[in-house]
Every structure is written in C-alpha cells, then in structure tokens.
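FAQ

Q: What does a record look like?
A: Structure on top, sequence underneath. For example:
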C-alpha cells in the first residue's frame, strides 16, 4: 500500500515538474550525458538503444488491446527499454488517451531506470495519429504549395498538438523525393526535386523543433528525417525493394535534402529499409557513419526503420542470423533499434559486446547520442507534458491554417475556355469514387497506418460532395457516384460499378464534377502493377463524356495514375493530391472562384506507362528523329511537367537581368525579373529559377531548379523579383562522387526568359 502511495506521489511530482526553464549549452548537456553514462551498466546502456512498439507490451484477449503487466514490468525492470512507439492498437488516440498511456510508461521508466523514455510516433501531416487533431495536407501538397512558410507552420502546429499527447518525437519529415510514380510513398514527400525537398524538409525541421535544437521547449518536438538514403528509387517501383543509384545521383540528389535537414538542426534520422547497389543501408558504415556523423560532424542519433535489423538476415540475407545482423547494424552506426517486438535485441547485443564483436566505444557513442537527444528534448527536467497546457489543440485558428495550406496546394491543370470558376446556381453532378469520403482525401498515416478508417474518425469534416452542397447550395448538387470503393478495403478495391446511374443523373445538370483517383494506402500494401487509373473509373468518365456535358476532372490520388485516354474528355482538371480534412472545402472555394488556385506540380505527371521520367532528366533522354538508317529518336512526352499549374489570372515575365555574366564558385548570381499580373484577379505565382549546364563532363541535365519564391500580385501589378544563388550552386557531382563546378556556359531561366552566364574557373569541392 505504502509503495503504491509513494509511486503515485512520485508520478504526480513528475507531472508537476516545470515545463521549461532549462536552457543549457551543448557543452553542459554533454557534461551531464558523460556523468550519467559513467554510472550506467552495460545492460542499462543496451536498453537505451532498444525501441519497442507499445503493442509488444500487450495481449489481445477478445481482440482488445490489454497491457500484459509482466511484459510491461520486464520491459523497464529487466531490459531497461529506452524508447516506445506507436499508438495502442495502431489506431489514433485522443490526447487524453495518449496521456494515460505515455504518462504511465514514462513514470515507469523514471521509477525503474531513472532515465526518461522517448516516445515516438508518426505525426506525418499534422498530429495524424491523434484523434481530433488538426490534420494538414500531406507533404506532396506542401511541396505543391511551393510555400516554405506554410510548411514550417504546419509542422509547428503538429508539434504543439503532439506535445498535448505527451509525445516528444515524430518520425517526420520525409524527404526521400517522389521520383518514381509507381512507388507507394510518393505522397509522403515534397515532390521529385531535391531542392524543394531540402527547403521544405528544413522548414519542417524548424517548425517541429523550434529555434534552439539544444533546448527543445514544451511546444516543440524532435524530428526524424527519413528514410535515409535513396529509399524512393527502387528499380521495381515497389516499396523496400533494391535501388541502383549512381554515385553522382546519390550524393547530389538523394543526400541533399538530408544534409539540409541536418543543417537545419534535425536531431535524429531514420535509415532506409532497403538496399542501394546491393548494400542494405542499415549495414553501411559509409552512409550511416561517414556521410553524416563524420563528414557533417553531426551529433544526432540514427534510428532504424521498422524491424530493419531483423531484415538484414530475414530479407536481405547479408547476415546469417539475428546476432550477426545486430553486429552489422550497430557497427555501421545504428544508435537505436526500432526492434519492434522482441527484447532479445538486448540480450544478443550484450553478448556481442562481451564477445568483443561490438566495441564498448560504439555502445558508448550510441548511448551518448540517445541521452543527448533526451536532454535536448527537456525530458530529464520535464518527462511529461500535460494536455491542459495546450488550449489551442484543434482550434479554429489551426483549422484555418490547414484550409489555407490546402487552398495553396491544389493545382489547376486545365481550364478550357475558362470554364472555371463555376457560377453560383450551376447545377452540378458530383460523381466518382472520391466524391463522398474522407479516406481518399487524407491518404495513409491518417488515424491508422493505411488511413482506411478515416471515415469513422473524420465524419465532422466535409467530403467533396458535402463541401459542394455547402458552397453551391444543396439544391444545385446531385450525387451519383457510378463507381465506389469498398469501404475500409484495400486501396484498389472497387464495388460493382453503376455507371448507368451516373449517366442518367448527368442529364439534368450543367456540369459534371468527376472525382477520381485512388483510395488510401501506405508502404508495401500500396504497391501496384498497373499505373493507369482503374478501368471502372476511366469507363465512368468516358460514359459521362458521351452525354456531352462539360466535365471537370478532379484527381485525388497519392501518385499520378495515367489518364491520357480520359484527359482529352475533360474541360478542366484540378489535381487536389491528398489535401486532407479541409481539402474538399478548399476545392469548393477554388471551384466557385473564392480562391484563385496557385499550386504547381511537385512531380512530373506521366502520359505513358513505359515513359517515366523526371524534369531533370539528362539531355540525351530527349532527341528528335534524325534522318538516316536508324531514325534515331527518343521523346520525353509527359502529361504535365514538374512546376506546371494554372491560375484564374495570367502572369507575364519580362526584363530578365543578371548582376554578372561571368562568375566563379564564390560569387553570388542575382537574377531579377519583372512579373506582371496581366489578368483581372489577384493571384499567387511561383517564380522559379532554373539552370542548364550547356556542356559538362557528365551528360548534363535538361534543367535544375535552383531557387523559387511565391509572390502575390494584384491585377495589373508588376513586381521585380530577385533570386540569388551562389556560383557553387551550379556545381554537380561527377561519376567519382565528387562535387565539381566546371568552366563554361550556363543558361539561367525564369518563366519564358533566359540569360547566359559563364563560369571562368573550374572548382573542385
Ligand atoms: C515506416 C516508417 C515509420 C515506421 C514507424 C515504418 O514501416 O517505413 O516511415 O516511421 O514504420 O511507424
């Protein structure tokens, strides 16, 4: 009894600990870490390196998540576990439910180990594992907004709402780049371009962590930039299958966003599950230790992805058994193992140290990094944060920010004869499988991993049909879907189509809003074999087109599904990507003209299945038909290029100037351009600066985005926009993996304007 009273008093004291107030220098933190480390046993150290899923501490009698008290006790008392992840049952929890679970675990860690637990979870677009939280559009939309301020704000709000749940760590941002449209995680990234991923990733690191990486306050959380390195480029397009990447692309493109996140202060990174050129990333000393900890002098921590040490022997076959896999990964530089189910990681690692197969110095280094992270998060001073300290959770203010992010990210791709915006009073058929559910607007990592239960949790938000009724008047809207998804089924499962019903309903309307795309998915369950939009959905659009009524095609999909046979049938196309809970309201605001669309394509939208490319392809990928025997040709033909997006107004570019026409690596190049809004409505434009290396020792790329700025222009207004880059920004990584800026001409292009500049000195970097 006394014990119980003491332990509950202890728990109360922990909760009442001051929220912030500590502000330590890095040197002070390192001194505290060293003092603590010196007193720790091998068992305690190894425990800090282990992360279990909360499910590993439970049983499921009658399918109900129930803590197994022995497993809970052993995790802390025997194995000294340092980290937990995931919501119970892998379903979103309310802040109060989260508080109950995390506070209990945290208090146990403090009581039994004396070192706070770091609880992590995937709060990927807002606090997306929190029931009731403000969800933001997925990262692919953040990329499409080309607005880094929105990116930072979304992360700041996600951090605040995550702390309301007593969680200090998220597995975000995802900066793998969406370079293969087949890949099921395209939508988790900010698009295909390394610069956009670098800028948006860094903005989100700042938003999540706040201004001081050594002293993360109680409104911010630690990040894990993921999935380091080269995860998105699997040869098959399927999740977690091998990638083959040149040294040049690996260093110049894949590494760049991670470097930017680390330089912005990212405290942890998560390793890529797969392999590159035959080497699993989890076993690579070169990528894990040399490229980050050594070259960047980075003092953060590396966590594995889900079960990826185990995958070294079960899937990748570079280790004979689990013990060998652990030795490989820890010696390569893994600091924390997202195990996630078995405590034998601890026993095996202890054996490995005793046998001399993992040096004690490596363990000490890993634990130093983990403890440093926990100090930086303020967990030693304040292990728990309280829900009541977060009164703005799910506030109207946050909802408005999410709506604005959605509005800025939806992309107008076609608007024949200015059919949009639609006048109030227009009679509209809302049709297609994406017309009336929240699940497809949200995508994966929404309430659950696959996002498949979103309609149970997000009922209070508007589907496209509901938003259209609110905006255009219920009396003007007819809903007849024609094709529907199987509720809570796999992302590709559709019910028997009822296309004739939709065609019949089209007779009495002025315009058809055909909402097509994909249902939600995530990771491996989202793999596909056919990139075309489903046959049912294409048949629906074709049948509707035969009515002669104008079609506005709404694309709501995590990756670009090929629609080249139905695109010509549409008068207008809007790609809403995955705009989340306020995405339908944003769409209705665009359709009625309250909002002028300003999103731009964050990836290249392919036209053909076997013609997949990115905007920065090497120039020889495109060549015109030549005369002669072989009629040698290769054509890049895409549906919509990267960076494309229309507005209800028009913009003209003129008067491009550059501050110097010759340069070396250290010079600044400032390009200025006049942008005029030549239409009748205010609008936002993304001004993008591209470069082209005219002759280089590696086949040059067609173009590369070097800088961008989003501006707002009133009708008739002209603004001079300046974009500055360094000469060294025009360098590339050669076949030998080294940065080089080569002498010669470069073309700098903004809109339809271009200037030439000349680099006068080759520089190796
Ligand atoms: C995913 C990660 C995620 C982790 C924890 C993995 O399967 O690849 O992105 O952070 O699970 O949920």
């Amino acid at each position: 009894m006394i014990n119980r009273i003491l332990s509950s008093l202890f728990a109360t004291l922990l909760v009442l600990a001051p929220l912030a107030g500590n502000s330590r220098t890095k040197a002070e933190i390192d001194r505290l870490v060293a003092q603590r480390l010196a007193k720790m046993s091998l068992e305690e150290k190894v425990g800090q390196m282990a992360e279990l899923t909360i499910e590993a501490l439970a049983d499921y009698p009658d399918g109900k998540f129930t803590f197994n008290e022995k497993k809970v006790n052993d995790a802390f008392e025997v194995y000294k576990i340092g980290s937990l992840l995931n919501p119970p049952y892998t379903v979103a929890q309310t802040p109060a439910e989260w508080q109950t679970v995390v506070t209990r675990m945290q208090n146990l860690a403090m009581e039994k180990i004396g070192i706070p637990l770091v609880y992590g979870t995937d709060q990927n677009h807002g606090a997306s594992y929190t029931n009731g939280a403000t969800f933001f559009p997925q990262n692919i939309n953040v990329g499409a907004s080309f607005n880094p301020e929105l990116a930072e704000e979304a992360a700041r709000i996600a951090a605040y709402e995550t702390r309301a749940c007593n969680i200090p760590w998220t597995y975000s941002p995802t900066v793998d780049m969406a370079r293969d449209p087949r890949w099921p995680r395209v939508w988790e990234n900010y698009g295909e371009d390394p610069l956009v991923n670098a800028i948006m990733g860094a903005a989100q690191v700042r938003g999540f962590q706040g201004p001081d990486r050594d002293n993360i306050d109680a409104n911010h959380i630690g990040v894990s930039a993921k999935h380091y390195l080269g995860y998105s480029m699997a040869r098959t397009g399927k999740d977690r299958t091998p990638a083959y990447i040149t040294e040049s692309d690996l260093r110049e493109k894949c590494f760049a966003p991670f470097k930017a996140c680390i330089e912005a202060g990212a405290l942890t990174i998560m390793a890529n599950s797969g392999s590159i050129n035959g080497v699993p990333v989890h076993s690579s000393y070169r990528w894990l230790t040399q490229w980050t900890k050594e070259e960047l002098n980075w003092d953060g921590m590396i966590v594995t992805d889900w079960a990826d040490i185990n995958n070294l022997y079960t899937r990748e076959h570079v280790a004979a058994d689990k013990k060998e896999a652990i030795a490989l990964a820890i010696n390569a530089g893994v600091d924390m193992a997202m195990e996630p189910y078995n405590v034998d990681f601890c026993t095996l690692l202890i054996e490995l140290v005793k046998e001399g197969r993992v040096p004690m110095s490596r363990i000490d280094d890993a634990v130093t990094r983990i403890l440093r992270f926990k100090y930086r998060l303020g967990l030693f001073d304040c292990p728990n944060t309280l829900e009541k300290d977060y009164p703005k959770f799910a506030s109207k203010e946050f909802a408005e920010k999410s709506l604005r992010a959605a509005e800025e990210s939806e992309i107008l791709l076609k608007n024949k004869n200015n059919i949009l915006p639609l006048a109030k009073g227009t009679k509209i058929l809302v049709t297609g499988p994406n017309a009336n559910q929240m699940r497809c607007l949200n995508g994966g990592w929404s309430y659950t991993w696959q996002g498949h239960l979103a309609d149970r949790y997000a009922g209070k938000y508007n589907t496209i049909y509901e938003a259209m009724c609110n905006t255009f008047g219920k009396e003007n809207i007819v809903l007849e879907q024609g094709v529907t998804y199987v509720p809570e089924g796999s992302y590709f499962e559709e019910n028997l189509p009822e296309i004739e019903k939709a065609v019949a309903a089209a007779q009495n309307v002025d315009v058809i809003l055909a909402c097509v795309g994909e249902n939600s998915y995530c990771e491996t369950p989202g793999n596909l074999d056919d990139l075309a939009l489903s046959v049912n959905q294409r048949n629906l659009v074709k049948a509707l087109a035969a009515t002669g009524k104008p079609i506005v095609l709404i694309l709501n999909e995590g990756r670009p599904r090929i629609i080249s046979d139905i695109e010509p049938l549409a008068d207008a196309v809007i790609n809403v990507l995955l705009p989340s809970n306020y995405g339908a309201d944003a769409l209705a605001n665009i359709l009625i003209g309250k909002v002028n669309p300003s999103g731009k394509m964050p990836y290249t939208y392919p036209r053909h299945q076997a013609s997949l490319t990115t905007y920065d392809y090497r120039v020889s990928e495109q060549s015109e038909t030549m005369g002669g025997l072989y009629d040698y040709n290769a054509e890049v033909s895409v549906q919509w290029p990267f960076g494309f997006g229309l507005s209800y107004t028009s913009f003209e570019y003129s008067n491009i100037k550059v501050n110097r026409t010759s340069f070396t690596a250290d010079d600044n190049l400032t390009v200025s351009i006049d942008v005029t809004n030549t239409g009748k409505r205010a609008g936002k434009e993304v001004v993008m600066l591209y470069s082209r290396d005219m002759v280089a020792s590696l086949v040059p790329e067609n173009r590369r985005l070097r800088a961008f700025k989003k501006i707002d222009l009133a009708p008739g207004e002209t603004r001079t926009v300046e974009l500055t880059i360094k000469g060294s920004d025009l360098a590339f990584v050669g076949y030998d993996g080294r940065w080089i800026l080569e002498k010669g001409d470069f073309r700098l292009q903004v809109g339809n304007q271009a200037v030439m500049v000349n680099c006068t000195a080759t520089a190796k970097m």
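Q: Is there anything notable about this one?
A: The longest strand covers residues 683-693.
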